[in-house]
Amino acid sequence: MWPSMLFFVYLCSFQQAEAKPRCGGIFTAARGTLQTPGFPGPFPTPIHCEWVIDAQYLLTKNTTIVIYLTELFVFEGLKFTEYQVYDEGFHFNGRDLLVVNETNVIGAKTVETHQSYLVISLKLTTLDGTHLRVLDHFLNVFGFNVTYEIKEGAARTDVCNMMDCGFNGICYDHFT
Ligand SMILES: *[C@@H]1O[C@H](CO)[C@@H](O)[C@H](O)[C@H]1NC(C)=O
Ligand SMILES: *[C@@H]1O[C@H](CO)[C@@H](O)[C@H](O)[C@H]1NC(C)=O
Ligand SMILES: *[C@@H]1O[C@H](CO)[C@@H](O)[C@H](O)[C@H]1NC(C)=O
Question: Which N-terminal stretch is annotated as signal sequence (predicted)?
Answer without folding.
Answer: 1-19
